[in-house]
Amino acid sequence: MSFSCWIGATIDAVWTETDLSARLTNFQIRKRSGTPSYVQATSKGSDFADAILAALGAEDPELWIMDGATELCRVTLERVSDSRGADSKSVTISGNSQSTNSSPTTKALSGVSVWRSENGIINLTCLYDPTVDPGDTVTWGGNSFVADEVVITASPESLTMEVQQSANG
């Protein structure tokens, strides 16, 4: 996987993008149907915190995560947390925004490793697939449901994806 993390904003009437990928240590994306999607990313070092804060105070600040050329999620940048310890520094950035899957399709999930049901709503842990979005019908092992939430969590040690069923089926 080749993930990248970007922030962008209109600063002094010019759209400016900053690539935070080299320092990206982990992120979580919660793509949701009907409620805002959410992204949180942490980068090591804090020497670029001022640039992020400038973007936060600018017009139309955005945060997005890419997998190669595929945009996984784009949200409004809302929060910057600059953490400094004796031997470490990090910046955590987050945001959310509402979006709708205008072209839902059917996607076959691979590697379903955990199947849970709570109050009749199914939640699956499966292999990462950047093409699955809320609103899509997901299938696995002869079963199917409409995805309400897709959660992607990545760190240097792991990459997981969970897909949750819509309460409406």
Termini, distance in Å?
32 Å
How would you characterize the largest beta sheet? 13 strands, mixed
Amount of helix:
under 10%
Strand content: over 45%
Q: Based on DSSP secondary structure assignment, what is the total number of beta strands?
A: 13
Question: In terms of per-residue confidence, which ranges show pLDDT below 50 for 5 or more consecutive residues?
Answer: none
| Rg, alpha carbons | 17 Å
Order of helices and strands: EEEEHEEEEEEEEE
Number of helices: 1
Average per-residue pLDDT, rounded, comes to 86
Give the CA-based shape.
globular
Class per helix and strand makeup: mainly beta
Task: Please give a structural write-up.
It is built from one helix and 13 strands, in the order E-E-E-E-H-E-E-E-E-E-E-E-E-E. The two termini are 32 Å apart. Strands 1, 2, 3, 4, 5, 6, 7, 8, 9, 10, 11, 12 and 13 form a 13-stranded mixed β-sheet that branches. Helix content is 5%, strand content 60%. The longest helix is centred in the N-terminal third of the chain and has 8 residues. It is globular, with a radius of gyration of 17 Å. The model has no long low-confidence stretch (mean pLDDT 86). Strand 1 and strand 2 form a beta hairpin. With 169 residues, the chain is mainly beta.
